[in-house]
Amino acid sequence: MEEKLRTRKRKSSNEVLIGLEQREDFIGFFKNLILHRERHNNTCLNYDLALRYVIHFVDGKELPFKKVNSEWLMSFKTYLESAGSFKNKSTLSTTSAATYFRIVHSVVREAVGCKRIEAAAVNFSSVWHRADASTHPLSAHELQKLAQAECRHPVVKKAFLFSALTGIQWQELESFRWEHIIVDEQGQSIVDLADQIEPRQFPLSDQAWELLGAKEESQGSVFGKLQWNTYLYVTLNKWAISAGILRTLTFQTARVTFAHLLYNQNVPVEIISELLGHKNVKSTVRMINVQSSPAA
């Protein structure tokens, strides 16, 4: 009896959503879901913020239902991992990013229930499994395999490996310019991220410098017009497959790998935290303890 009532309630909710005036895209559906919640006196602050991140992710453009699938959800999750907060100049906390992802995840479920999105387009259990896998570090051996494998778009390979060697996050890679690399009095190359959300300076290793190659100009973007989207996500993971790495990669994987490699070399957590730009060493501890045993 209780199950029938829950089913009837869910069906009634879906009918209300279908009946609302809406744009024929996912963003319009999302807005109407918020209106529906407000009419029933439900808290919508986090829903409003989650929608803002979706709109920002698609550059304010329409988001057809047919484009919302498992790959899109994973791309959106990766974007949240390095997105800036609308409330201040810092990046989103892990908790906030997870909250907004769960909300969008639930809205996609609603859209599937209303038959706006094909059920076969989204494997919800797979999305959660792959999301967890992307936060596990690569071993030094796996990183070497990636370095040796060819990537359809070399700039994606270069940016990912550079992140794994420096700990620079995706948002910083997008805006990383040659001007961010300076040379000190001793001739040491220094990465100067004073203008970033997490300001810091750190030495650039010879390996990372060689990876960048000779610069054609003294100014300008190092990695060109990198923009996180489904296409880049697919490119990254096809490259991983070609290297024999059969699990999901995101640019957060590279950053976590950087932290673990240093930790395995007995670098103090406090120093790793400074290199990552973490304001609180607890964030670094959580990152290093993503898995119980260190990467080989």
TrEMBL record:
Pfam families: Phage_int_SAM_5, Phage_integrase. GO terms for molecular function: DNA binding. Transmembrane segments: none annotated. The keyword DNA-binding applies. GO terms for biological process: DNA integration; DNA recombination. InterPro entries: DNA_brk_join_enz, Integrase-like_cat_sf, Integrase_catalytic, Integrase_recombinase_N, SAM-like_dom, Tyrosine_recombinase_XerCD. Coiled coil: none annotated. It comes from the Bacteria. Keywords: DNA recombination, DNA-binding. Residues 133-296 form the Tyr recombinase domain. Belongs to the 'phage' integrase family. This is Tyr recombinase domain-containing protein. It comes from Pseudochryseolinea flava.
